[in-house]
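@here heads up, posting the sequence + SMILES for the adenosine-5'-triphosphate run so it's all in one place. Ping me if the SMILES looks off, I pulled it from an old spreadsheet.
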Amino acid sequence: MPATATATSSPPPTPAAAGAPILQLRGVGKTWPNGQTALHAIDLDIRRGEIFALLGPNGAGKTTLIGSVCGIVKPSSGTIVVDGHDLAREPMPARRKIGLVPQEIYTDAFESVWATMRFSRGLFGFPPDPAHLERVLRALSLWDKRDAKIMSLSGGMKRRVMIGKALTHEPKILFLDEPTAGVDVELRRDMWAMVRELRERGTTIILTTHYIEEAEEMADRIGVIDKGRLILVEDKAVLMRKLGRKQLTLQLQAPLAAIPAALAGLPLELADDGHALVYTFDAQGERTGIAGLLRQLGELGIGYRDLNTRESSLEDIFVDLVKRGGTAGGAA
Ligand SMILES: Nc1ncnc2c1ncn2[C@@H]1O[C@H](COP(=O)(O)OP(=O)(O)OP(=O)(O)O)[C@@H](O)[C@H]1O
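bot reply: prediction finished. Complex structure tokens:
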């Protein structure tokens, strides 16, 4: 099977230009030799300088997609253009534009931080540039550890070294595969700050994460992949606005065994063993229906002790989307 084949209906790749996407995928598919299809004709444009978060449940195809763009996995179909370079026709120039921070920490434990960094840069055919390596190490707070052997570093430091390695060849796109899996809250915040700094210096960031809070905090745009299909690509703010819901929770004075028939048809659920009534409404709707609901409760003699509202998080939206199979939006 060829490394890539041009998707029949896909437009030809556009040359690198300031306004052009830094990464273009057209019809990228992957079927493993065992017949398992991990990616179905993915079309995706990544904008220059954005932070793009790719979300998806286990086995959705995230690693396969990243591997395809990084030249680790051979797609069965489609084209991938990295800053104007077709990955299949010009693998080296395309690959040089990309830094990959893999999920697993793997590096030579007996080497020093400095030697590891220098070696990484050489792998991409770049001449030594100690000043660049120093900048990277300083930005990652690793300068003081430059002579330390990797095995002597803490887990968090080792993760920083992995990021450093990916930055040695000055990539324009940085892939972070589950960057904060298993790291403590403090380091997670540090890493977020680091990623933002990189973006400010012009690096485009693509990250996969299981922590939806991370995508909510960091991303400009969100892509959701499920069963090998990109079911949604959207600006985070638009997504939160479009699919966001609010919930009003009423703590009842006396528990209910069931929703009263007079309230059937309303978006109501019982929670907390009947002690709470949850009303879900559209955060964007002009009319929430709350006044009517409270009036009806009064008429039915259902009293409440307390009430509060909460907006859905990206996590709620994501879970909902994957449950529904992504009928809420289209992939760009
Ligand atoms: N080398 C392989 N050979 C055969 N099937 C594979 C291979 N690698 C991945 N797959 C299958 O491809 C599908 C997508 O896997 P992938 O690892 O890309 O998912 P993922 O979204 O990264 O999942 P996770 O969040 O668990 O890392 C899965 O069904 C997986 O079993």
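MO: The first strand starts at residue 23 and ends at 31.
MO: One more: The radius of gyration is 24 Å.
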